[in-house]
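We modelled the chain as a single entity of 587 amino acids. Its sequence is:
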Amino acid sequence: MAEKILKIANSITVGELATVLDLSVTALIGELFKNGIAATINQRIDFETATIIVEELGLDVELQEKEAVAAERRTHELTDNATLRSPIVAVMGHVDHGKTSLLDAILGQKVADGEAGGITQHISAYQTVRNDRTITLLDTPGHEAFAALRQHGATLTDVVVIVVAADDGVKPQTVEAIRFARSANAKIVVAINKVDKEAANPQLVKTQLATEHNLNPEEWGGDVVMVEVSAKTGQGVDKLLDMVLLVADIEELKADIDVPAEGLVIEAHMETGRGAVVGLLVEQGILKPGALLVAGTAYGKVRTLHDFLGKTAKEAGPSTPVTVSGFKELPQFGDVFEVVKNEKEARTRVQAVRQEREKATASTNVTGADLLKRMTQEHEGQDFNVIIKADVQGSLTSVIDSLKLIDTGGEISLHVVSSGVGNITENDVRLATDGKTVIYGFNVSLPPAVKRLATRERAEVRIYDVIYELLDNARLSMEAMLAPEIVDTEIGALEVKGVFRTMKDEIIAGGLVTSGKVKPDLLVRMKHGNELIGEAKVTSVQREKTNAKEVFEGDMCGLNLEIQKKVVLEVGDTLEFFTREVVRRTL
């Protein structure tokens, strides 16, 4: 058992680790260098690397990782003055099951027309009115790459409307939506869409949900409201909204309005002339222009306040989605925003959050995997270097996370050189002039001046507005970097009965074909027992002193073999004939 137990963060600088271990920085850097890592005093290494180094040095110390202190969301305790608020409803489901088209029917506007490839690319917030009551709707992404965004969509909401196509049934993202809704303790309402289609089978959908996912329809004695709808014809849409309001009424949703405003960040992007533009969902209090907000590591004074239609708003109360400008930098989606009294408090709060996040999730320059690879002298894989630019923070996170999930078996390492929100810039291009870095843009533009620079510097820029097309391109690029696979196919074998001539680059021999066949241009393994003595190529085959195209099992034949180096072939040796192909590998 180790004499001392030391607790360190999940990443630590070389200098900090030296202090903890009571070693000189020079000694620690020297140990890293011995293992192929040229580190500096301020370079960060991860917990695994630190553990490996301690073992290498033979120190009687056990390292334990400090538990990261997660920034927990503050729970607001309602006062006696709390009032009823509008329900917040997330619309979720499998791609192409009609979530956004259903929103079209509810809102009376073409939301789907603005979505690339018919897939929602980030969370969008809307409001509608039914029977003089407001409902806030969140349209969450349907592609699997946006799982993180869908998770936030569920945790923001009171009710989750899960859209299932009546002609397609329960699919993977349907199941994922159910899981998200349950983990967020949100009430579930099922919208069985596309009931106008000829192949529609709503009863099958209900059966799947009841038997496979424990969502029992009310009409079958269960507690889950299921409404048959058609986004195309409008059938059942009003009933769906009535059911959402009924479910919300049972929950008695309330909020305080006489407290400082707080809520969640649902979108964030940079906009020319406006700077940081941030989508917020107010949960408590009344948000007004001029309020000083803190959200994660960003703060700023609300300069403009707009509703979901882009119209100027004087204020926004609970359950209201708004867009504000005035943040000094972009917060992350899912960050809690709160109103603070002054800029000094804002800076203090931001600094505290930044330090906490750096401790918990600091990126490391040296990882344990890197060190182990070098120590064991494994094959060093190639790097696929990318620069990622996206329109909003949430999409940027999803793109990066999805790229990192592409499995190359450890041969190709994805390295994000740089990432950010906004259009591709000249600085991005300059970072990609090494010929080994690809710039990926997602829902962003390539300004003419930047395009000219990219052309001149031969920088690779690829822009997409549908995420799965971007991921497919990245996968193909990484496939092209994989070392090809060499495939040998056995064709036949021969037992040597005679060796007639051996020269520097040729052997003439004869024998009995014991299996398969022999023909010109095949490759040959020459074996003495089980020992491989060399390889050759068949240049010609003779049968009864006549050239033959091929000779089969049971026949005698003569062979001319082309060799690269002199080989002593003897009677009784075996020749194995095969073809060799270089096959491009896929992921």
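As a brief sanity check on the tokenised model: The longest helix spans residues 343-361. Confidence is low (pLDDT under 50) at residues 68-74, 110-122, 142-150, 373-380.
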